[in-house]
Design brief:
With about 260 residues, the chain is an alpha/beta fold. It has a single domain, classed as Spore Coat Polysaccharide Biosynthesis Protein SpsA, Chain A. Helix content is about 30%, strand content about 25%. It contains 8 helices and 13 strands. The strands form 3 sheets. Strands 1, 4, 5, 6, 8, 9, 10, 11 and 12 form a 9-stranded mixed beta sheet that branches. The chain has a two-stranded antiparallel sheet with strand order 2-3. A two-stranded antiparallel ribbon has the order 7-13. A hairpin with a 2-residue loop joins β9 and β10. The protein is globular, with a radius of gyration of 18 Å. The model has no long low-confidence stretch (mean pLDDT about 85).
Amino acid sequence: MGDIDTLVIAVGGEGKRIFNYFKKINFVKSKSLFPIDNKPLLEYLIDNALKLNFNNIFILTSFHDREIKRFIDDRYKFTKKISVITGGDKGKKGGVTYVLSLLKNKLNKPFIYSDGNILYSSNLLEELSSGKCLNKSLINIAISPIDSAPTHSRVYVADNKILDIKTRLGDKLRINAIKNCKSYCSMGVMAINNMIFDLIPEFADMYDLDYMVENIFKNQKKNDLFRVDFTIYNKDWLCIHSKRDIDNIGKKRYSNLLGS
């Protein structure tokens, strides 16, 4: 186990984008519980963290809280490492930053955050958990050359530095004139220094972590403590945002991840 031994997984989204398709296939649970080879996606994330000896795993939820609690209670009776944190009605309105802020007193050292509707190799968790990624930054985001998450940020990198961060993929940077510039998709996985709660007093009100990352990036020139770094992830990953994602899972496009 590296220096970081806490994983926070957010599974509290309402799932509006995929709701109609889930209704057609009679799946009424959180998308984090969608089965991949008869195993819920969330279970892969938790099992990977347990294999790497993470000591604390916090599951954040606002919607679907009862079914998430039931799943954790039924599947993980053998460990006390997992806690479900419910945001309630305020969490539904305030988003992931509000629910995450409820953990401020428990997150007294750096931690890893992950969206609960994505699956990636455990190698990424292992790399981020070393803690080295936060040596000079407040936050380190995992980025990928594979465009898999339509709601995530676009990150532009050149000469091992972030040139710009656009919070939605539709916002394009003119990169043709910038030498060696490459664009990546933010994965929704990041290592976060727990100092963030004190350095950004408005953290709980920022709703979305993508907006928070962009805010830190824009202010890093004003404050040396506000720094965003990145870890490039070159392996496969999957996400559940749309019917197309479900189709790709059905085609076994990501079968190599299931044993990760």
